Amino acid sequence: MYSNCTCIPDGKASAGFCKTDCAMIYPWAIVNFLSSVAGAMKIMPNRIIMIRCVKDTDKATAIGLSAFLGSALGWALSPIFYGKMVDTTCLIWQSSCEGHGACEFYDIEDFRLKFHTFGFVFKMLALFTSLFSLWKVWNWKHWESDCESNNEKINHSIPEKQTIMSNDKELEEHS
What we know:
The protein is mainly alpha-helical. Helix content is 65%, strand content 9%. Among the domains are: 49-79, no CATH class; 88-136. The protein has helices at 25-41, 43-52, 59-87, 108-138, 143-157, 164-174; strands at 90-96, 99-106. Strands 1-2 form a two-stranded antiparallel ribbon. The chain crosses the membrane at residues 23-41, 62-82, 115-135.
């Protein structure tokens, strides 16, 4: 217990965090859990769509490029953006002769709002791109003609295979 503190009204302080009555912890946990489940549920449909929309010869390249971009944008850039966002919520910076160092005190209300808003914005951006893709697919009118033309290309590009039976029949007809 600390006493004779001039900065606080009672003049007494104790070590540790302030006691709070956070009534929003359970709704936050439920929304966070459901958001995580929804995010995980779109992984396989997105992978299947990617595999079905790419030519057979380009599937490995598409998967590799997708993994590379996911790593480069998700794992390399997000710490930079989130770190900059966290730095904007700092109230007291540690200072020394070399300049300022680590943050000593954060504005937790500003931190909370910015942290959740940042995540929400990126999740909504991903949702809207997925919904736009779904809308484009639903409005695609030429499914059957595209499939038929692809099948015709495939059928015409593969030479007919001759079996031993067909050669025997040809020999019988010519004799």
